[in-house]
Amino acid sequence: MSSDSSIAAVFSQRLDRIRARLEATGTDAVLLSVGPDLPWLIGYDAMPLERLTMLVVPVDATPTLVIPAFEVPRVVERPDLFTIEGWGETEDPITKVVSALSGSARLAVGDHTWSRFLVDLQHVLPEACWIRGAEIIGPLRSVKDEAEIAALQRAADGVDRVAHALRTGEIPLIGRSEADVSAELSRRIIAEGHAKVNFAIVASGPNAASPHHHASDKIIQPGEVVLCDFGGTTAEPHGEPGYCSDITRCVYTGKPPAEFQEAFDHLLEAQAMAVRASVIGVSGASVDKVARDRLAEAGLDQWFLHRLGHGIGVEEHEDPYLVSTNAEPLANGNAFSIEPGFYIAGKWGARIEDIVVATVDGPRSLNRIGHDLAVVEA
Amino acid sequence: MSSDSSIAAVFSQRLDRIRARLEATGTDAVLLSVGPDLPWLIGYDAMPLERLTMLVVPVDATPTLVIPAFEVPRVVERPDLFTIEGWGETEDPITKVVSALSGSARLAVGDHTWSRFLVDLQHVLPEACWIRGAEIIGPLRSVKDEAEIAALQRAADGVDRVAHALRTGEIPLIGRSEADVSAELSRRIIAEGHAKVNFAIVASGPNAASPHHHASDKIIQPGEVVLCDFGGTTAEPHGEPGYCSDITRCVYTGKPPAEFQEAFDHLLEAQAMAVRASVIGVSGASVDKVARDRLAEAGLDQWFLHRLGHGIGVEEHEDPYLVSTNAEPLANGNAFSIEPGFYIAGKWGARIEDIVVATVDGPRSLNRIGHDLAVVEA
After folding, report:
1. Taking the model in full, what pTM does it have?
2. How far apart are CA A238 and CA A76, in angstroms?
3. Does B13 lie at the interface with A, CB-CB under 8 angstroms?
């Protein structure tokens, strides 16, 4: 994707695939609002506000973008792809959404759409049967094309450089607060070509035992593990949507105790084994099991509290999920995280995470920076 | 609010008021997920991810916080107020939400809740009637207590200082890109006690004619209007929710043309008149009309493309709305923006915005920095 006309062709193909899937599933339309579906589909990011923006994609008619009238100037008009229907401040946008439908027996609604709008639509369309938007769009978004994989690679390269600075001690840790380090990671993520930071977890010592710990005021001490899990969404030209990065690396502030080093080395092997197991046709559940079984050999599986991974693309977490309940086989072009960990409350924790793409040549890890436990000194 | 025990008492009162309103409206429960309701009610901000976090508040039973098991450490436990129900990675959170209900004939769902979760709940509870969460919580959140008004005042003071730097030329404009100025505004908003920036619109010259213009790469020239509309959410201690700021000021890079100055002076008067009209008992529609009528006298009403204002609190935009369709009278403790503007496509635009509280002593403007068109030179 390198020009506005080529991204327009991509958007057009995506709309065609959505209409084909609506047809195949007997769904009359999909209705998309805030969240990553719209940027992926037409390059427009709806404002997350009480004024409704909604793209109506009927199975058999031109899509309509219902949008606050004064936000119309923000939209790149693509009359070949969709019609724009602005609504004034005293008009009812729900009426305009309903008018854009050609049928309403079965409707899909974008996963992130605010419930207040779904409630309003249901009051006007009491007979409609509603399904998740992801049932239509999920299988399309989860298979990345070459340009999307290239964008994910650029995102991964950016956070790899930040991880390198962390591992080499270029980013000081000891004596700084987690929040301060998190802010530095955030600045570097932006400097590496991201439009925004999605998260920058810095969890030191016992805090590393909480997988979704936020950076706190705690000062990082010598002799602690520091778990850093960070990522953002890339800035792209030509109205293209941004793609996400997501990486986790651990460093130790001083020589790690043998007990931790040993556990970490098991984790390192479990993560590498799971990456190698991520081949087309293997289920998400099977890959999860590879890491879990390897950790079980070391008695660490009881501390592996979460699923192995999640799909990634225009959204940080999306299909496919690598979890014991997902029997779906991996497909060519699926992109996902492989991120086993162990978390021992009150003591410490660790996680290693890469983004991996399933390809016909086997699994390709987009993150290539070292995975081992880097030791940094004061 | 100055200690954890006093904020706990506030949360307890809010839960009581919600239960009373559920009772009064014949609603069995309200279900709250992502967005500002949860921080306002229990001091917890749900992660906007595919793993469901949902507080179930039944009319007649203890609330239950259904949350991913490994995010439980992030929650400040308040067993007097709610029970925590963690769900494991292979469990179904929807089942846990349903178990926490004591009745499900009529249910309210938080406005920002992702539709995917409402769809899932509706498949399990096909007979339930659903209403917007705001029907329960909106009228409670829209009436601010003294501590909330104090928090809004601190937020306003912070952005007033940023606006002062803008008006005095301390923040250079000419020769910089809108995006660069927006980034500086954002840094200053954080430095002034906000935890996050919600928006920092910088719209120069013709861009000022788009009310929701984002800062672009356009370089600010001499002889242009620069419209800046910015705000964030404050950082508060003790698990208290943050409160929002929102201000708009315009500066001119050089001496403004008489035509613009004249139009701006009409806007200045329209804004001040609307602030003065914001008294308890007057409807949102009436206040909107005051500004609109004053602009009509100058022939500018055709360019006033949006409603006059929106409520503000833990959320940037909330009840009450100052719009011609809102006949509800303003209540003591309502806090809202007063922000008339004019937008002439291809040419220029302007807006002036303050946050105002309706009090028994009359309208109180929280923003006190000068409103007139400041002139800055290179």
Report:
1. 0.93
2. 10
3. no
